Amino acid sequence: MPSPQPSSALRSPRLWIGSGLILAVVSTLFALLYVGGNVNPKGNLRDLPVALVNSDRGADAGGKHVNLGDQVVSGIKKKAADNHSFDWQVLSRKEADKRLGQGKLFGALVVPENFTTAVTGLTSPQQKEAARPTLTVLTLSLIQGSSMASQANQKAAHAASAQIGKDLLNRAAAQKAPLAPAAKLMLADPATVEVADGHPLGSHSAMGLSAFYYALVLVVCGMLGANAINSQVDTALGYLHADFGPFRQRMPLQHTSRVRTLAVGTVLMLALSVLMGSLVEFATVGILGMDASHLGLLWLYSVGAIAVVGVSALALLAAFGIPGMLLSAIIFVAMAVPSSGATVPLQALPDFFRALSEFEPLRQITDGTRSILYYDAQADAGLARAWVSMGIALAVSVLFGFGVTRFYDRKGMHRVARAGEAVEAAPEPAAV
Q1: Fold topology of 47-199
Q2: What is the number of H-type helices and E-type strands within the chain?
Q3: 3-21: pLDDT as tens digits
């Protein structure tokens, strides 16, 4: 008598509910994290660092020394007293240039040396060819943050010019000198506002985003590399079969401890990180022509970042199995991208994402990559923090991964029952 055909797997409520729950969590998390971190940057903006540079030497006017640059700076600070969106820092030009070159500022408003002289010359009878004063707005090639800082600087500069214009018109009225309409218009808004790049980047820097994309590649290589290595190690040890099109290959089963399995994967990850890091740099710099200096350091950093992410992902896979793949995607992608401070500055993120950025790997790796690519590999520009963070992450991952697998081994939680151990009867396979 023929045996009854197994029921279809599609009729299994457990299959539908389990798959539905997993996909519901993934889709909801990615939507909330990706969109939630970027949906309202201006509304979440707080303490974006912008410099006020007063290089004005002042001038003698009406029998006393006047410095209009001081008035501009104090006026901006006073108006911004109740607005916490920007952190206006009064700095020297040298210090402002230094911090722009470290990525610690998103822009600067510069009052030139001859500002007072140029302004007072507009109403001086002795000045036949008055030079119109200029306020300079310095920007950075970091799209979102620099754009917001530039808008704030330009708005502040035009407001300062308008205030100075009122004083000039009052002074001209006191002199009782007739003014042509064109002269009145110029005096009402006397300063020219110029926008200049405070720290120019090369044309092959993705408009300031090449560091983020490069760092994202390193993280993805580490995560996907760990998944591939985990699968290859399990296949080589006989725990999984390998499918090549219609052909299936299965190696003889080797009963291996979880600790040793993780150790084999870790060694492979560390060694192959050299290959992946080399190819990433060759592809981006050698083939695509990405602007980069310190190529030796960039190579070492690339290898290290891939290795740390890969070892961390292997630890999650060893500890949690298949759910470890989902955890890796959440930690290294879903939570990492919106908290990286790459497309939206950290100062414009909600508090939750700012907290994530303190330990999320992509933010640390991006800052280190920026330092190497844009800021002459200065330690203070994020490189030192990146190395320290990667070292801590590697140590924690190794201790966690080998600690958990050692616990499993000591409790006899073998992946496949050994000879003499009780084995549950396997159910009949269901038809698809």
Answers
A1: abc type-2 transporter like fold (3.40.1710)
A2: 14, 9
A3: 555 556 677 788 778 778 8
